[in-house]
Design a protein that fits this description.
four-stranded antiparallel sheet, mainly beta, elongated
Length: about 160
């Protein structure tokens, strides 16, 4: 009886270690529309940032494209067969205004701790909608939603 119990315990522990050693792809997509005059604007992916991480390890990534800078950092956790993530996401965009010789930035920031995530499913982590009205012009709408997704990373084979 003692031998059977020991074998089951060893199998369970090695299964957990195997899952924890795998690599996962964390991705944040900014989905939406900018300055649209349509009644129901079509949403598209405006920008993305992704990083490869292992469970219980810290990750950090920075992407600079033109006047946009995205930074994503945090830690992916795997406990009791479930994933959660502590994430800090920032997107800064130069808006064209110069103050004291430095560009003014529009900034979007999301901080979250212990956010449950499921492999293969997307989770909305933030967003905003605005309507700008100017005299003698139709109102313009801007909508942005931040979508976090987690997938198992599979490197490209050569």
């Amino acid at each position: 009886m003692k031998q059977a119990f020991f074998l089951i315990l060893v199998f369970y522990t090695s299964d957990t270690i195997l899952s924890a050693s795998e690599q996962y792809l964390l991705r944040v997509d900014t989905v939406g529309y900018i300055n649209s005059t349509e009644g129901s604007p079509k949403e598209t992916v405006l920008n993305s940032i992704e990083v490869i991480s292992r469970p219980n390890e810290i990750f950090r990534c920075k992407v600079q494209t033109g006047k946009d800078t995205q930074i994503m950092s945090g830690k992916l956790f795997f406990e009791d067969g479930e994933f959660s993530v502590k994430i800090h996401y920032t997107c800064s965009v130069e808006n064209g205004t110069i103050v004291s010789g430095k560009p003014l930035l529009d900034r979007t920031e999301v901080k979250s701790s212990n956010l449950k995530v499921v492999v293969g499913k997307s989770t909305r982590i933030g967003g905003m909608n605005t309507i700008e009205k100017k005299p003698s012009l139709p109102p313009t709408k801007t909508g942005k939603h931040l979508i976090l997704s987690l997938s198992q990373y599979e490197p490209a084979s050569e």
